[in-house]
Write a structure and sequence with these properties.
2 copies of one chain form a homodimer. In chain A, the strands form 2 sheets. In chain A, strands 6, 7, 8, 9, 10, 11, 12 and 13 form an 8-stranded parallel sheet that branches. In chain A, strands 1-3-4-5-2 form a 5-stranded mixed sheet. In chain A, strand 6 (84-88), helix 2 (93-105) and strand 7 (110-115) form a beta-alpha-beta unit. Chain A has helices spanning 27-36, 93-105, 126-140, 154-161, 179-185, 203-211, 227-242; strands at residues 9-11, 22-24, 44-48, 54-62, 67-76, 84-88, 110-115, 147-148, 152-153, 166-170, 177-178, 191-195, 215-219. The first copy, chain A, is of the alpha/beta class. Chain A has 2 domains: 2-76, Hypothetical PUA domain-like, domain 1 (Ribosomal Protein L25, Chain P); 84-242, Alpha/beta knot (3-Layer(aba) Sandwich). The two termini of chain A are 21 Å apart. The A-B interface holds A 2, 5, 79, 102, 105-107, 139-142, 173, 178-180, 220-226, 229, 232-233, 236-237, 239-241, 243 and B 2, 5, 79, 102, 105-107, 139-142, 173, 178-180, 220-226, 229, 232-233, 236-237, 239-241, 243.
Chain lengths: 243, 243
């Protein structure tokens, strides 16, 4: 919908979308509309709630005391994101923020931060990271938002949380299967992409990971990629190969 | 070569590599070895010059007055990078630095910054950007360095500089060919990936670009990607599909 592409786009998960319905928005969103985007009553924007597609809405009220939107009509039907999770070790703030943002932009359904042997960063601010994902969803025109999970232990996640999906394990300096052949083989199945911390996985971790039958080790090429580059390459690669 | 993976790796384009040869390094590199990496005479590092593969070297002298390396033996044969260029509009500093870094990390041979109708940034520091590319080459274990060209006009570049390669034109909100089919069709040919500024290309530019017979318009999916994400997705996608 080229016509509406310049309109602000907001994620409003608590509202159910029915034509003509009015609903309030959060204080943060009201502040953003009023003070950052300089919007006022009568102007249009786009909204989505993760369930009902993308809608055109009009600002019914916008002042210090209240902010009310009115739904005009549906612009686009809801589309499901790919069933792809990202498992990645926290790295330094700037690079990790980027990993969250890009993962959401590239359509991942869930991001699980995992602690590995070589992980240096042991605390994350889940709420802040989730806010980054929401902003990325709004800007990339997704219909839903990537969920950011709390920090978990790598082995626990692989053994319990991921045991019913195919894990794509990106590894370097080792002769393993080609990325494209592996991804083609797994087309349409629930996937998780596993990316190591700076410094890679420990050899004990590599043995553990490779021992799981639902893990597929792949190479992203002969160059050594930073964690965030490897993540973007693998995540976009999976989706470009599926199309 | 896992054994040497922790060794510092330096790009030394002016030296020809012959076993036992000694050569000086730049002041900046000497400072880096001595003061940043805390290295001293007798320690090993890896070097490459873009022509003769990767070599093991020993620090023969390292003090305030001089810095001398001695070549020990060749570790890896020279490998040619893919014949892929990147054409992209400058964007704000942080994102553009990232585009340069990631392009080199992902193996592009050349980066041509191009001015488009919606380009907001009209000056670049070519030398600083080239230094970012060199650092990315050193860290990603490339055997050569991506060349960063001066800022040029989009139409001139497309008409003259790129007329003998296939240009992959990443466009959004339009029904065009699938990325993977296009890339497969062009496998092995010299390529250039064209990425627009924030705000996209003007409609006049789109007509001009699409009118060139060596341009292939592709989509990277239904989501709207930031320039740097689109670049990384397309560049890694091309290479993952070719393997």
């Amino acid at each position: 919908m080229k016509k509406y592409k310049r309109l602000v786009r907001l994620y409003i998960p608590d509202a159910d979308f029915v034509c003509g319905e009015k609903f309030g928005i959060s204080e943060g969103q009201a502040h953003y509309l009023r003070n950052v985007m300089r919007k006022s009553a009568g102007e249009s924007l786009r909204v989505f709630n993760g369930r009902d597609g993308e809608w055109l809405a009009t600002i019914a009220e916008l002042n210090k005391k209240s902010a009310l939107l009115e739904l005009t009509h549906k612009l686009l039907e809801q589309k499901q994101s790919s069933d792809i999770w990202v498992l990645a070790s926290p790295v330094k703030k700037e690079a990790f923020d980027m990993m969250i943002q890009k993962s959401c932009e590239l359509g991942a359904a869930k991001f699980i931060p995992v602690t590995c042997a070589h992980t240096v960063v042991h605390r994350i601010n889940q709420e802040r990271l989730q806010a980054i994902a929401i902003e990325a969803a709004e800007q990339s025109e997704r219909f839903d938002v990537m969920i950011v999970e709390p920090l978990m232990d790598l082995k626990k996640v692989l053994k319990s949380v991921c045991c019913e999906r195919n894990v794509i394990f990106c590894i370097e300096r080792v002769e393993v299967a080609s990325f494209s052949e592996t991804v083609k083989k797994l087309a349409g199945k629930p996937l998780a992409i596993l990316i190591g911390p700076e410094g890679g996985f420990s050899s004990q971790e590599i043995d553990f990971i490779q021992g799981l039958e639902y893990v597929n080790a792949v190479t992203l090429g002969s160059r050594i990629l930073k964690s965030e580059t490897a993540l973007i390459a693998a995540l976009s690669g999976v989706q470009l190969l599926e199309n």
